[in-house]
Amino acid sequence: MDLEASKKKVAALTEPRNAVLIGVSERPGSWATRAWRNLKRYEFPGPIYLVNPRRKEIFDTPCYPDFQSLPEPPDHLVVVVPAPAVPELLRSGAAAGARSATVFSSGFGEAFDAEAAALGHELAAVIAETGLAVSGPNCMGNICAKSRFVTLTEDRPLTLRQGPVALVGQSGGMLIYLNVGLEERGVNAEYLITSGNEAGLGTPDYVAFFADQPELKVIVLYIEAITNLEKFKAACRAARRAGKAIVAVKLGQSEGGRVAAMAHTGSLAGAMEAFDAVAADLGVIRVDSLDDAIEITELLAHTGMPRGRRLGAVTHSGAFRGLLIEAAERNGLTFPELAAETTAKLNAILGVGSLVGNPTDGGFSVLTSSDNFKATITALDDDPNVDMVLFQERLPREPGSDRAEHHIAMVEAMVAAGARKPIAAVVPISHSQSDYSRALRAKAPHLSFLQEADKALRIIAVAARCEALERLGSAPGLDRGAATSAEIAACAKLRALVKAGATALVDETQAKDLLRAYGIATPAEAIVHSPDEAVDAARQIGYPVVLKAVSAKLTHKSDAGAVALHLADDVAVRSAYSHIAANVRRTAVDLDAMLVCRQITGGFEFVLGLHRDPEMGLVVMAGSGGVLLELIKDVAFAAPPISRAKAGALIERTHAARLLRGYRGAAALDADAAVEALVALGRIAEDLADVVQSIDINPFIVLPRGGLALDALFVPRAPGTPNQQ
What is the average pLDDT value for the chain, to the nearest integer? Predict the structure, then answer.
């Protein structure tokens, strides 16, 4: 993956030698006029040229008829012309020497218009042909504070400062709102890139560039679609290696189509679940709203990542103490009992008996003494049971809150000197800032000031979960080694079946052959073609048995009346055979054979699955199975490869994990069997990435010892499926 080329292109876009505007007029409010005004307002240091063959002058500035007439070769093109004129304009600009362009123009397929889509393909071809670094089309311009290059069509005054945040997204409007919210909090975005349709440069290119900017701490993404998954992964990994936090607001639901709907996994694995599974390995923190994006950026830009889910806190009141405790419980965080040594220290500071659990109530004894306040924060920072420390303090909006200002300065000095834990201020409610409070916040660069208890603890929990999942995604055990001979043979057989035309389904017996080759056990079973064969097989397997139809066109057998359970004798088997055959005939599906299986009782019905999302590639699923699968949707997802640790963590994210451990006195079940099956599914995802669309194992019965795949559905990848891995 050539990320170096990406970095060079984005550098050309963000640090141009000059800017050439095409499409400027004197019409008030036009985007070209706004871009012109902002280039002037924010003092872009390079020359700014206007190209307009119909005018000699605009805004008391000379106009040139074409690129060849400019005093020097063009470098960056600011393009606001009708869509049909854009491809040739870019071609001629590149021929004259331009390295980059921002294309504001729309009409390249955004509204699913066939003619516009064809124009979009032409534009992409011209960009590839010329090698231009292009943001857009259908964008709103950019902010590059370091080079003072501002083409953003925003009338509101902007603050241009370096660091610590970069914003990039496919919606210029949403980025502007994000930027306004961050500026309100005193957090500056050094870069704001509205990437539009991404016909040229895309989100991965910008992320790769931001990874090399040392002053940046947080990269915030607004994503509508990812078109190059592998490049996205490579860029995010490069940014994480460089110590950048990545926050994403993801929009949109992918439609898996007819083939995906055949499998439960396909219907349950929406775009967001698939994105989260891949993002977890990359260290990308997805949030649900712009508000949460602002809050978590405040945390990450100043305090950094929490080191776990165990909190300690100092509050001014018992009421806020209660709000924090309830918010922690809702968001999967804890305020653990403090270590005995910490409790002794705090009792000495506050007075014996003053400390009631954790968080502490600041109260009179802490707030009337700076020494006591500092000693309390220090004690929590030293406590081995605490991963992060919170203290209640608001940034004053005007002079007069001497205690608050003193406490903020004191904690800032503690953190700057090397506190052991992340420390953040938190208040009960969201509130606005003033120039005075923003000036105070600038004096405390190592502290984040979080607003509203539930929102603050929600984003702490999201960040802590992301950090833990990212560790699993890079932990030992992901390298599975060479495939076994059985695995190689099973994969070859599946590929042959698909090549021979099995484009709808692979029948249950063939799917189970694949599972067994990868070590996933199934019950004793036999394929039969008549009632007599069914009876003979049932006697050999041992009653009771299950009888099921086998057909490459039968998706959910229970719905078709093609399964009979608990058959205890020959008569029951013959009767079931007749009923199932009749039911299948009514569905107008060909009956290929019947399957006689040992009846398995007891255990817990789990579901395991594998599904290809058209945008994010293959993801693995686990959760509560059987008839409750689609009713309660107790499932979780992860991206392959799957290690044992990753599989265990995946199961723990479901309610089913409690049942496997033994619930309300029930015996514990063999969770390791489910773990091993998930690892095997991860191997199948790697080995059959070119063939598999979905696999369902429902149910996978987890027993006190071992586990068995009672049913299996394999959906081959349809021709023309997007080539995401």
Answer: 89
